[in-house]
């Protein structure tokens, strides 16, 4: 009889033992199996292992196919797989190891009572879990990609094998598995950041990173950027392993190991994320891809693919730079502490008082500078090659770029708030000597916060106004409302096409107001007109989306120009008020009131609404569009009139401020939209 030893740890592996596990070829040993339950358990376990192993080996991991949406059906499995694994590791491994390493051998089973000890153990478990994931992900990615030509030569991101060229490239099954693994982790991470992990001061930056990373992974899969995406995953996971090892060493008190790990982390971050990532990967996605692209075959779709993906990649680079600033602070603290690694600078925001005055020479490497210049030339040539006057019908798939703008605005605002608005606000409000001094009182914090909000809105409204005017000022319907509905040629509403440049304006504005809804809830100062502001933002998003789909984009662009113009004066006036420049505040408030009356209470109802209510009916083919034309007409106009009601409501508020200003002999009064009670503790 042929006996095959079992690897089951519960069975004696000695062949002479009564409990030696064997797999007899004789089918008449049922009685022996019944008398030996351990033997039955071992046989079942071994057969299961053999079945899974045979299944894995039977899969053709080299099989290539085009990516499809249906592949994401496995994503929920991974999103549930990670918290399940983490739960068991936390409970049965990380908890005991953390207590053993941090508090000593005798503390393995002793309860951790104090808050500080519990907090340290919790952080240790978080770092241990992340280290396990990043290490497993790095090994998985390297095992899949290290023998591919595009792992070392970026030009192969876009060509091969054979005659395949991006975006007509297939993806190997093993690379698809890597993508599902990473996408599942970041899906889980979003919820873990909210409900599981320790809340740190960079919570929103981390949340933005996770959401942007997940969108990048999913988009790079669908848009067939999987090759470059796998390299980006390898670059990122490699640095994160050193970070988590360093943090665990710090929690344990192993300062030397923590310092070594941190220096390796900084070194790998600099090489991989600040050098290789922008000057090789982004260079390839921005320029090299254009060298192999069949622009005639993919004239329309690839433009969307190119700009969406690259925009998100550059947003990721901004986050890299932000975290690099934090690392520089930790590095300075470590040098000052003579090699002892400082605490995580994200833990207590008030401790971030280290200022670095290092001047970085961005062009100290001639070759990198030349690469950057060539990349800029490639992008510039691509922008000029786009036919912005090209007309096409609006479609739902055009909104694929909307998530990028919804993430673009908070990222830009975060950087402006932290590095520009904060310093400018302190300088203007409290004087030159207060630029780097902490704002301690609640009132001073509140004033700085409001100044930053107004500065951000002013930047957006000014940029949006310039963008809309540059796109629409030379169009006939900018000055003649009858052209909203006719032309060019025989086109008549709703059978009108939209120019590509006007579509870009719509995506820009829609992205801002999508972000503004969440900013109003989580970011900005809560005021008494919160409900009205929320109604305004929601109505504006719906108006923008509906006017795009229902082909009211010409009238919509004029409405955008009317609104943004007056808002610029409002935000300048508010910043002037916060900084104590009463004369400038009064002057800009008068300009704001005049522009509001002329644009929103005169031109908007008596020209724009007149045209959308009456002139459109003169050109509408009622027989051809008997049903859809009526729906478009009533839905869009109802929302436009709701917007007019909000204009009147805000005019009442402005009238009250105007009366107070006259009573105060020209001095502009405080914002009548008082802050809500309990908002003094609001964290900006």
Automatic annotation (TrEMBL):
Recorded superkingdom: Eukaryota
Primary location recorded for the protein, binned into one broad class: endoplasmic reticulum
UniProt KW NADP keyword: no
GO molecular function (one): sphingosine N-acyltransferase activity
Keywords, alphabetical: Membrane, Transmembrane, Transmembrane helix
Membrane association type: Multi-pass membrane protein
GO cellular component labels: endoplasmic reticulum membrane
Keyword flag Transmembrane helix: yes
Pfam families (UniProt xref): TRAM_LAG1_CLN8 (PF03798)
TLC domain boundaries: 122-336, 449-663
UniProt cross-references to InterPro entries, sorted A to Z: Lag1/Lac1-like (IPR016439), TLC-dom (IPR006634)
Localisation per UniProt entry: Endoplasmic reticulum membrane
Single biological process term from Gene Ontology: ceramide biosynthetic process
Annotated TM spans: 127-146, 178-196, 203-223, 257-283, 304-325, 399-416, 505-523, 530-549, 584-610, 630-652
Record protein name field: TLC domain-containing protein
Species, as recorded: Rhododendron simsii (Sims's rhododendron)
